[in-house]
């Protein structure tokens, strides 16, 4: 089993707890509540919302992996090192060592149709498109990982989406109580960014030095002490 999948899943959870996503939870709850007429309906709307961005991220990862599959195989060593440097760059950005204006922006798409589940699905799609710049550091790192490992690209993007989606599903279960629940995490947001940044830097360093296989084979500890 590729341990990298679990690290990417963790990156998805950390994205949810980032300063970019966590503050939008009240608006997210309010919007889906306006589409729902019961607790069950609210949860189902949340499910379709998660499906919206999960399918979008995963298909884009699959598309990019397919396009670059041939070149990634031919120039695997070079691409891995370049990808490692890019992921390290994103990791340093996540740690707050510098600012990138493009990654501080987001774009909102106001979607509302008669079918609430379809609306929620498109709302999830708009999140994947509109918030991609804002969550770009971690997402960019995962995309880079997918591009340099095309055989696992789709699974990396799916794992990231599921990691991001699980907390949203928890919001769907908690309903209007979710704001109070996740509000408790706000004081620790800077630590979640620290963890995400260090995670990206670790993966980037392993790619840079051609040691990513150590994670895949659970031999990282042996490498550290060898």
Short description:
The chain is mainly α and 226 residues long. The chain has one domain. The chain contains 12 helices and no strands.
- Domain count, please report it: 1
Oligomer: single chain
The chain-level mean pLDDT equals 76
The general outline is globular
Q: Which consecutive residue ranges, at least 5 long each, have pLDDT under 50?
A: 218-226
Number of strands: 0
Round the Cα radius of gyration to an integer and report it: 18 Å
Distance between the termini: 23 Å
Percent strand equals under 5%
Order of helices and strands: HHHHHHHHHHHH
Largest sheet: none
What is the helix content?
over 70%
User: What is the helix tally?
Assistant: 12
- Secondary structural class: mainly alpha
Describe it.
The chain has 226 residues and is mainly alpha-helical. The chain has one domain. The chain contains twelve helices and no strands. It has helices at residues 3-16, 25-35, 39-67, 69-74, 76-94, 116-130, 136-148, 153-174, 178-183, 189-208, 213-216, 220-224. It is globular. The chain starts with a helix and ends with a helix. Residues 218-226 have low confidence and may be disordered.
Give the SSE map.
Blueprint: H1 3-16, H2 25-35, H3 39-67, H4 69-74, H5 76-94, H6 116-130, H7 136-148, H8 153-174, H9 178-183, H10 189-208, H11 213-216, H12 220-224
Helix pairs in contact: 1-8, 1-10, 3-6, 3-8, 5-7, 5-10, 7-8
List its salient traits:
226 residues; mainly alpha
């Amino acid at each position: 089993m590729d341990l990298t999948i679990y690290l990417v899943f963790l990156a998805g959870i950390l994205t949810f707890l980032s300063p970019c996503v966590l503050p939008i939870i009240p608006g997210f709850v309010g919007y889906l509540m306006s589409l729902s007429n019961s607790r069950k309906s609210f949860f189902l709307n949340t499910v379709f919302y998660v499906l919206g961005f999960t399918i979008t991220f995963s298909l884009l990862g699959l598309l990019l992996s397919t396009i670059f599959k041939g070149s990634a195989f031919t120039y695997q060593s070079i691409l891995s090192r370049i990808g490692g440097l890019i992921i390290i760059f994103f990791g340093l950005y996540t740690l707050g060592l510098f600012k990138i204006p493009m990654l501080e922006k987001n774009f909102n798409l106001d979607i509302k149709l008669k079918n609430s589940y379809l609306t929620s699905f498109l709302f999830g799609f708009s999140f994947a498109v509109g918030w991609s710049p804002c969550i770009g550091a971690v997402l960019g790192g995962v995309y880079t990982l997918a591009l340099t490992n095309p055989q696992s690209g789709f699974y990396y993007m799916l794992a990231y989406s599921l990691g991001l989606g699980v907390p949203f599903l928890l919001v769907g279960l908690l309903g209007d109580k979710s704001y109070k629940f996740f509000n408790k995490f706000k004081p620790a947001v800077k630590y979640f960014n620290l963890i995400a940044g260090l995670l990206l830097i670790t993966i980037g360093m392993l790619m840079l030095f051609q040691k990513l296989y150590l994670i895949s084979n659970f031999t990282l500890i042996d490498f550290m002490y060898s």
